Amino acid sequence: MQLGLVGLGKMGFNMRERLRAGGHEVIGFDPRPEVSDVPSLAALAEALPAPRMVWVMVPSGEVTRQTIAELAGVLESGDLVIDGGNSRYTEDGRHAELLGEKGISFIDAGVSGGIWGLTEGYGLMVGGSDEDIARAMPIFDTLRPAGDPADGFVHAGPVGAGHFTKMVHNGVEYALMTAYAEGYEMLAAEDLVRDPQAVYQAWTNGTVVRSWLQQLLAKALKEDPDLANITGYTDDSGEGRWTVEEAIRLRVPVPGIAASLFARFLSRQDDSPTMKAVAALRNQFGGHAVQRISESG
C-alpha cells in the first residue's frame, strides 16, 4: 500500500521505517530536507496515486491545523487523511468537517509506543467510520504490535474517539509514572533497603506491579543508580491537563491523575510560593519557627 507521511520526527521517522520494512511504499514530507522525500505537501500529493492516504504526524495545535488545512487544498475527493499526532479530540470534528467539504475522509489515531515502536510496534486507538478504518487496516496492521490485533489496536468509535482514548491513556501514564517514582523515593530513603534498583529489577517478573514503565525505571536506575545526572524538572505535553479538564466536565473523580499533573507543576519550582505562604501562616497564628533565607546568601 502507498502512504504519504507528513512529519518525520522521532515517531514519524521510525514509523516510516517500520512501514517500509512491512512492504509499504511510504513517501515522507518534513520541513527538514535531509529527511524528506519530497519538497512540499503539493509534491507529496502529486507523488501519490489517487485515491491517496496521508498520515499526519506533527505537533498538536496550530501546526496540525495548518497542515490539515493545506492538505485540504492539495488533496482530492476520495482521499483519506489520518491525524496520528496528539491532537485534542475536540479538534477532530472541525478537521473532519473541513476535509469533508472536499470529499476527503478523516481518521483520528492515537499512537503510543515512543522510540520503541520501530521494533515493538505501536499501540493504536483510532476513530472514524467503519469504511475508512477498513481501508487503512493494512497500515494499522503493520504499525501495531505482532499478535492478536485486539492486544494492540482498537477502533474506539467515530471521529474523535481515537484521540479521546489516547488522552485518557496519557493521563493514566502520568499517574503510573508518578506512583513508580514515589515508590523509588521511599526505597531510596530507607537504610534497610540496600539497592532500590535491584528491587525494581526484581519486580519485573511475577509481581502484580510489573509493567513496561516499571521495567524502564529499572533500566534507568541501572544506568544512573542515584539519578544524579538529571534534575527533577518535568514538563507536561498537554494530554494530562486535558484529561483532568474532561474529568471535571464529566464529573469523574481522577485524584491520582490530577495529583500526578500537579506534581509536575511542583517539579518546576525552586521554592514553592504555596509552602512559603503556609510557613508564614503557621508563624503568624502559632508562632511556629520558620527557616529564614540568610541575609548573606
Give an account of the 3D structure:
Belongs to the 6-phosphogluconate dehydrogenase family. It holds the Pfam family NAD_binding_2. GO terms for molecular function: NADP binding; phosphogluconate dehydrogenase (decarboxylating) activity. This protein is an alpha/beta fold and 297 residues long. The protein folds into 2 domains: 156 residues, 3-Layer(aba) Sandwich (Rossmann fold); 102 residues, N-(1-d-carboxylethyl)-l-norvaline Dehydrogenase, domain 2. It has a 7-stranded mixed β-sheet with strand order 2-1-3-4-5-6-7, sandwiched between helices. Strand 1, helix 1 and strand 2 form a beta-alpha-beta unit. The relative contact order is 0.08.
Summarize the structure.
This protein has helices at residues 10-21, 41-47, 62-74, 89-100, 117-120, 130-143, 161-189, 196-202, 212-223, 239-250, 255-267, 273-286, and strands at 2-6, 25-29, 53-56, 80-83, 105-112, 123-127, 153-157. By secondary structure, the protein is α/β, with parallel strands linked by helices. The longest helix is centred in the middle third of the chain and has 29 residues, at 161-189.
